[in-house]
Amino acid sequence: MRIFSGIQPSGAIHLGNYLGALKQWVNLQEKNECIFCIVDWHALTVPYNPQELQKSISEKLIAYLAAGIDPNKSIIFVQSQVKEHAELAWLLNTICPIGELERMTQYKDKSKKYKDNINAGLLNYPVLMAADILLYKTQAVPTGKDQEQHVELTRTLARKFNQKFSNKEEFFPEPDSIMPEYGAKIMSLTDPKKKMSKSDDPKSYISLFDAPESITKKIMSAETDSGKDVIYNVTKKPGISNLLVIYSLLTEKSIKDIETEFRGKGYGEFKKSLAQVVINYLEPFRRKKKEFETKDSYVKEILEKGQARARVIAEATMKEVREKMGLI
Hints:
mainly alpha; Rossmann fold; Tyrosyl-Transfer RNA Synthetase; 3-stranded parallel sheet; two-stranded parallel ribbon; globular
């Protein structure tokens, strides 16, 4: 299958991003044609520092590489370096009902969070995401639960385009979402009823490159629930349940086995063990990050090659799109 996914350059990539997306990417690249993007245009819809943007893009590429994305197996590039993303987004806007955009949960959430910056790009964000996906005639998108609504819109726009401009034949595939069985939505350490987010207080998430002492401090102070039993129950014990999911995904032990292991031992002992699990799991990431930070020319070369490969596919798609829509 052809797979597409991307992450914004803003903020630190955290454990939630990794478990919900990057870990899937690493596995998917072994048997699929994978295209992974740093979606910098999406990042412009919320307040950002222009002087920091290029640095953030480089940091995200290094995070991709440190997490195991292989440029020999996958195409890796920066969204704004392939102009066809913007062209297709505009064309899809002409067939996208505005009501579809106004009902998007992420638009409502970000409008509340950034009341002084409710821009048209924030509303049109899902159309650009649809263009990102459809430009490569993507068949499947690894995604977290918070983006599933946007993938649904992508399927809707693919279907509308096919009906209107392709004699109902499948020019654009209607992509499927790929979500892990559990862990698609890792919750905040400080508020387990809210998704872990890189735009929140750093205490609420674990960065892929946090120092061991920082990881220990964050996990030991993570919000848990009344009682002391290490039991998975999202409704009654959201805090410890979130930590159990992280433990399970990093060790590949079942939650039931972990519950058995810590029966009668309490939250403190469980958290100490989880902190060590996280530290050990992320140690290779920290090591690889330092290695890639000394290879500027290699990192730039990866993006240049990825951009060239992505552009070949994007230009071919847009040539067909223009013809179907009656453009010169």
